[in-house]
Structures are given as C-alpha cells and as structure tokens.
Design a protein that fits this description.
The protein has about 300 residues and is an alpha+beta fold. It has helices spanning about 30-40, 80-95, 100-105, 115-130, 135-145, 160-165, 185-215, 220-245, 250-265, 275-290; strands at about 5-10, 50-55, 60-65, 70-75, 150-155. The protein has 2 domains: about 5-175, Beta-Lactamase (2-Layer Sandwich); about 185-290. Helix 1 (about 30-40) crosses helix 6 (about 160-165) and helix 2 (about 80-95) runs antiparallel to helix 4. It is elongated, with a radius of gyration of 27 Å. One of its GO terms (cellular component) is endoplasmic reticulum membrane. Belongs to the synaptobrevin family. Its main location: endoplasmic reticulum.
Length: about 300
Amino acid sequence: MSMIFFACVVRVRDGLPLSASTDFHFNQDFLECRKRLKALSSILAQYPSRGTAKGRDLSIHFLSSGDIACMAICSSNYSTIMAFCFLEELQWEFAASYDTTSISLASRPYAFLEFDNVIQKVKCHFNCASGSQMKANWEKIEEELKFRPPVQLKLEDTELMNGITNGGHAGVHVEVVPTYRMQRVTPLGILSLVLNIMCGALNLIRGVHLAEYSFQEDHEGIGNVIAFFLPFLACVFQCYLYLFYSSARKVKTFVLFFSVCLCNIYLYGLRNLWQIAFHIGVASLSSYQILTRQLMEKQPDCGV
C-alpha cells in the first residue's frame, strides 16, 4: 500500500529528536528502517538539504532547513514529489508552532509531545489526498527537484550500517530494541505459572537427590539426572517466555515443550504414567498460554 508510515522532526547537527510519535508497527522491516532513520538523523549534516534513502519495500526521505530536519518513512512506491510536499508542509507547521532559533541554540533535549497531533493530521491528509488536490505545491516541488535533485542513498549503505553499530554521534539516538508491552496476565496464565513452578521444583528436588546417589554409587544414572534437570530449566524458561516478550517465541516454546516430553518419556520407570501425563499436561498448558499471550496493539507511551 502506497502511504507514509512515520514522520519526525530532528536537529540536524546531532540528530536530537524534536518531536515524539505514536506511530508504531510491529513489522520487522519497519523496525529495521526506523533504526536506519535514527542512524541517518545523526549524520544529516554530511548531506545536502534533500535526500532519499531507498530500500526494497520502504524508503526514508529527509528535508532540512537551517538546524531543523523533517524525516519520513514511506512505502517505496510512494511518490517522491508527494513525500517532499509532505515534509515541506510538516516543516512549515513546525516553524509556525515553535521558535526554531531557540532550538538551534539549545543544549538540552526537547520532547514536543503535542506536535504529534500535527504530524498525524498532516500525514492522514497526505495519505488520503491525491496529487491533483495539491497541484500548486506539487508543481513547485517538482520544479525544485529538477534543479536540485535529492541525494540518493541506499538503506544498506555502509555509513548507515556504521551509524547503527557505532551509535552515530551519540549512542542515545540509536533505537536498538523497542519496549514491548504484553497483554494482561489472565487467571489461567497465573495457574499455568504456579503449576510450572511446582513441576520445576519437583524436577529439581528429584534431580538433586538422584545426583547425590549417582555420584556416590551409580555412575550410570547420570542420564536420569540430566533428564530431571532439563525439564527444570525448561519450566524456568517457560515462565520467562510467558511473562516477557522474546524474539522467536514460537520456536523457543516448541523446543521447550518437546524437551519436557522427551525427558519425561525417558524417565518412564522412575515416574509412572500419571506423573508423566501431569508434567506433559502442565507443559502443554504453559505452551498454550505463551502462544496466546500477545503484544499490546499499541504502546501506551509515546516514543521519541
């Protein structure tokens, strides 16, 4: 879909954010593109006033004037002229709202939370409007781009990659991992946590007792000791995955579940069928709770 996804205002000389945004997408391409935007914002002083960093699905456009720059993430098929029309409109709105002279001299961080309302309004207008509805501004920007075409970058450029790894001029401007918020813990989820802790404790106690006996008398029982300790660790990690967000949750959940199943099957003889069924049942409930507890649709706080 051809549209503008994200926009912000930054200070040119150091990439300091001068606006906050409620725009957030859990799409991995967008998160990666936003990292590149943060890295690019810290080195804007190296480039001309207009520029475009193109990627396969998303592109970054920036427009600077004095010490202020407006930046946007758009879909790659979004019109470059429309993107710069949007950035010029945003720049004008920002200049009308704030004293840009004092900003250029400022040494402390700014967080213009209220300006996000303006960004959202202008972004919505441009996402819904066609080029014919802004013909005058379109022709003006088109003429300017002919005489002063924007510098062309690629999102995979070495400079942008270095900006991410080195943190640009100031590491605080590089967004590494967003703060993810999970949905509320349910009563069934609390039950799964309690049962998981109980199963983990049983595995640990049996494993410790068996380890004392195995190291003293039966050295061939080391496999059984490992088969008790592995489910204990699996229970701990299942509790963690339920409470906190982690990448590749599905893969980790299935690996932990199958580990519990295999270890309990291996322990047949030391445990009866009812005990094995109980441990596997608790692991199944925990896995289901992990997979059904999703991220919140939108972050409650505004991210700068």
